[in-house]
């Protein structure tokens, strides 16, 4: 009699529930990470701050969507607090055109004066940083800094042809001249910075009227801009910064994560790792960990793709490569599917980002390394999966084929044998006397077809 606790159906349901409970913390962790990245953790800003304070934030690194969000959030916080001004301490080699234009639009339409201060010593405002500096209500630099070198470039495997290059340069020239003219700065020099990639020091920038102030540090800057009048969207505002208190804005976790995820190389690597994890899980079901890691990496990759100029043909080519590698496990293609997958993977990496977007792309070194590493991984997993499929079964009815036992009674042609410690009905195509060693040739329902062997079974029966 079977007790209820031993009922096979109950045990099956309990096993399924146990597996579900085991995976529940993993699902919660994935959801938590996604909500944390999506919602972000912004700097704490008190809406009850007294007017007249100077808000200060540091924008260092390449111009990307993460940095753009941080600066725009700083502008909104300064507006909400009715701050006297917002100082953006800038140090950048350049970056994405779309992110730069978002920042410029935010500065131009800001309801508080925005001061862009290229600092500390050794910092620079190159390429996209020049446009941000020109858009500021007041632009300043510290000694030992430089500005300029704004010629449009395409980074990575992307190259601009002559026609596209001319269009991009002319568009950028018109943009930079309009920014400089609107702020009363040297539009001719700004055009040279775009067409000829000229760059000047802080002192020369002041003489050329590219910037308004040369300041040693933040206190010196606040003293020198005190009493200056700036034109906002609707009226003029006279700054009172000499004795104003300061509030420093720090990056939240959301901005720090996005700054790193918005790197085109990192976004591509995350997608490759994500697909590799899912591929391993599909090839070896039940491992769980590779699938979890793959899912998290794919979520982060697609989150980064929202902020980058992605070419969806590139994504489809990478997914197609994943499908080719997966089919290699189940279809006999003599390596053709693997070759197609490698080619599709390489093309997808090169086409992952739109060509017309400036200063974005996967670097050739990262592309080659990633394609080689992921291809080797896929091929290795496919080899292991195929070897497992071709391996002789070790359990079940099929696992009996090739096993040796001993005839318990004469087989003429039917009888009984002992194999694997079990009694089986067997038949042979020849007479086999009792006690003779036999080998299982075929399993037919619950009957075994056996033959005589010359050597006894190893280890006995």
Automatic annotation (TrEMBL):
It is found in: Membrane. The keyword Lipid biosynthesis does not apply. The chain crosses the membrane at residues 21-42, 286-305, 312-330, 336-353, 365-386. GO terms for cellular component: membrane. SUPFAM superfamilies: ClpP/crotonase, NfeD domain-like. Keywords: Membrane, Transmembrane, Transmembrane helix. The keyword Membrane applies. It is a multi-pass membrane protein. Residues 265-382 form the NfeD integral membrane domain. Residues 399-452 form the NfeD-like C-terminal domain. InterPro entries: ClpP/crotonase-like_dom_sf, Membrane_assoc_protease, NA-bd_OB-fold, NfeD-like_C, NfeD1b_N, NfeD_membrane. Residues 54-212 form the NfeD1b N-terminal domain. It holds the Pfam family NfeD_membrane. PANTHER family: INNER MEMBRANE PROTEIN YBBJ, NODULATION COMPETITIVENESS PROTEIN NFED. This is Uncharacterized protein. The lineage of its organism: Bacteria, Pseudomonadati, Thermodesulfobacteriota, Desulfobaccia, Desulfobaccales.
